[in-house]
Amino acid sequence: MTPSLGTHIAFGVLAAFAVLTGWRVFCTDSMVRASFFLLLSFIAVGAIMILLTAEYLGVAMFCMMAVEMMVMALFMVMFMMNPAGLNPMKMVHQERVAIVVGVIAFVVLSAVAVLSEFPDAPLPAEHVPTISLGRELLGDSMLVFETAGVVLLTTMVGVVVLSSRRGRYGCADDGSMPPGLEPGGEPAGQPSEEEGEHTHHHH
Amino acid sequence: MALLTLTTVLMATLGLGWLLQWLPARGQPKPTYPQRAPFLGGGSPDTHAWNRYHIRYYPMTLLLIAFEMEMMFMYPWAVVFVEKGAMAVMEMGMFLAILSVGIVYAWREGVFRWQ
Amino acid sequence: MILDQLILPWLLAWLMVGLGAYLVAVLDRLLATGSARDGSVWLAPLASAAWLMTQQATTTEAPDAPAWRLAPALYLALAATGLALVPWSPTLVGVDLATSLVLWGSLEALATVVIFLHGWSANAHLALIGAYRYVALGLSYLLISMFVLIGVALPAESLRLTEVVAAQTSLWHVVSQPLGLPLFLMVGLGLTFWGPLDLADSTDLSGGTAVERSGPPRLVWALARAAMLVAFSAIAATAFLGGWLGPWLPGPAWLLIKSLAVLVALLWLGRRLPRFAPERCVTLMWVVLLPLSFIDLIWAGAVALWMA
Amino acid sequence: MAVSWQRRLAAHAPAAVFLAEGARIGPLRETLALSPGIRLVDTPRHASVLLVAGDIPTGWRDDLRRVHDQLPAPFASVWCCCEPFEALHDPIRIDTLEALPQGVAETHRELMLGKRDSAPRLQPDEPPNPWEGLGDDGHGGEGMMGGTPYGRPMAMNMQDDLRDGLTLDTLTFRLGPFHSGLPPGLQAEISLQGDLVQAWTVTRKPFASVVEPIFHAARQAPVPIAELELSRARHHLRRLYRGLLVAGWPRLAERTLSLTGQLSPNSDITALRRSLERGGLWRLALPEPGRGVLDEAQVRELGGPAVRAAGIDEDLRSHDAHYRRLGFAPTCRDAGDTAARWRQWLDEIEQSLWLAGQAARHDLKTAETDAVETPRGPWTDAFPHDMSDLLGQVLPGLEWGEAMLTLASLDVSALDLHPLEEPWQRSTGDREGRA
Amino acid sequence: MTLTTLLILAAALIGIGLYGALSQQSFVMLMMGLELMLNGVMLAAVAFWAFSGTGAPEGQLLTIVVMAVMAIEMALGFALVVAVFRAKQADMTEALSELKQ
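YS: structure for the whole thing
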């Protein structure tokens, strides 16, 4: 595959966009906005994948990440006191270390990319990525496919057990049903004395 | 090329939509503060509307992520379905079984009822 | 090359957005009772649009400014992108992507994000409730849409819309996969939050996500919503009604007729039903419609193997 | 000034009207809904004309001022039987009902064509709290949650309010008195927890509701039962209309409303009932059974259809000899919840039409004058008084949409003991449907 | 667009993600860092597939598996946050480490 000039330009723009939005994620006050910046970064990377002719992966990335980041934004709203960043805030710790580690990681990885020799074996011309992926999934890598299915089922069950209150694994938090409504009334959360038992269910 | 076309359509329409909003708004007076207060039928709010919001359907959203990932495996499968015949059918059986178990379990646990 | 690959899809999409939105406004009024009340049916949408263009655009006290300005335009852009995917004839295709079916799915997912942003950015109580409520619906119909679209991809052995149409030469999917189109219509109502699934801009929230909108942005939002309805109709006509296929008339004409049929069906449904309660809407999607879409997929698979 | 083609075209658009309902105006909203060239909207942002109808008492005028300032320019306000704000130099007053729809539409046209300037803003252009240049970054905020960023404090709970296992914040605001989903005049302080109503306190009582003049006449002298029952059916149909609008079914709402115009003893609402059932109003749209239940003490105090929806056959008509002669027996539902109250309307409309038919045949008049069952409730020596505090007991725990639909099913305002004066009187009764 | 530039881009994304994952106090923001790192990993996988894998489908497979890992990480991560939050009303990583003691 020999990319044309247009592809090079497109890649440059998308790469800059991906890095910029990726960086904005961590310096935006509004948490919701941060999740959608991350979505933009993912979309840029997805577009680069399409440029690399991995069309299905790129488009799947749009689809998957739109949903994931939507959920991410919802959880931001659920957990953050200041989800819209009306007051600027910086909730970071060990920032120096983190910056240094981040830069080191970047430098080392880029050095590897620049210095090492990779075999130059581009895609065959008549390659159809989606079909080959499908054949692979139903052929040699059947096991991966099956495993993924089972793991995802486990995830579903795990998610339900962990996040749903009426879990069958006991009344993990009986007290929370139904949510209390009187302001300042009896808290509906987990009473503290049952805490040990409660966490036991989840770990 | 297809990507370029898509991007053009997307950006051009985005620009059009933005222009449609921006052009007529140029000469207009800036809304005053009372005008900008959220509409509550004459009532007034104490605070900003953005707050920590209890999204009661959150278990459903987590379930959806797992589900959707599973769907991502299905698209390539659909392409070779007819070609692979019986094996693909078996695959589909397993896939749907997994999903059904997931749904039935989640339903039983009341995930789709908002809490 | 630039002309037919860049400009043409773009113009086609815009033409459909403009004409389609106008048509939606007219048809919806015709379907409503007492439609002749407000003067000419044909002039009224234009007059209302002109009125909105002269109106002052409000803002709120501390909106999320970029999202506040971009959300209506983004929704419009998504609709136009969807329209660009539609094949008009074997040769006249806006964007002939090998994965156009998946891309349509991601447009649906992105639409949820945009509609959420529309309500979120206002920083207003009623708009926020509308936004959160819509996300519950938007995330629920997504799976159904994926299932029925995978169903139409099976016989075509491709995710390309042109090949999906080509696979319907002998029999349209609306016949061979009878559950597909009705399920997909529900998705359409959800995607455009129309009629019974209008959870975003609902009347109990005095207009939901659009409660604080006035003037040109409100016009763009309405335009985008109508355009999305048109885009959805065109995709549904392509996936289930054989797209450009048909005797006597040229392909694009057939597609127009079929899209119109889907559009009318959607608008009619929108007028026939009350707005569903959000919670039951989610349960309905997951517990009733999703299993139905499983059946649709099994059926589609069986038919595809049998026909092959 | 030359008028652009755009504005000339805009003048053809229907006038988008935000209606602020004052006291003692009768079914004006319903009349306007059937008028040509007018479109009623739910938020001032979507309107070009603010129509203030009926008396707005002093305590309510600040709220009205707030709504007035929320309309986007160009806009104008039309005042019907209400004293305009003094700050408006050129208020439009229309005090006859016949001229109202025309006048409102004309106002919109004049605005568009530039013949009339947009109304001035009444409130000073000041943020609710000073913020510019204050606080940490000059945006008014302090620390993480403090201060008044952009003019308002941030929503947060001072006390640690843990519910559902999560820390949940409540959002408190006042809704009304000019919100179309609330009874006119009602303002409530609402605390929302997510989309659940956590607390509902009435801060302004709704204006007394008026019934058609014939019910007042029935307290003076016997009146024809047929007419009385048709009035009752019309009243319930109008309630149903408002409810259906909240339920997001405008097409059927309009159909319901158009029934009021041509109501006769031969009218039939089976088709309407069938559409409601087939569309899935009860299955999919209204709150589930068991939501919005009132207990016996509450319904007894409330009176009217709500009592009978709870299975108590309390109806003054059964004490009336002539009604008994017609074979009247109260129709009841058992559940006493929101859905039952919606069904009760339909039942009572059907019963009223049937009674009207019977009574017309026998040409019967009412026998009692000191005990009249109005659509709002029984009117003897006592009469239905304001029950809006009841909402604080019914609505908490409901989701927002459910709360709105429950609200639509309840008649909590007091009964106005005086019949309407001109011009409103003519809006009620059978002349309403002329449009 | 060469393999090297693609890998540098991937490295940049991983670097930013690592910074985020290490520095953010809030659990949800920490997850954003992880997601961004996985974003870089996926890009690198696709780049290898396109430039030096002779079109072997394993490259694509790897990407899709990473995507699945991401989804699982997110779903389970959030579920855990909810569960922990219920127990402790804590959504900060520091509070979480206290919980272990």
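YS: worth flagging: DSSP finds seven helices and no strands in chain A.
IM: good catch. Also Helices of chain A lie at 5-24, 31-51, 55-79, 95-115, 129-138, 142-163, 195-202.
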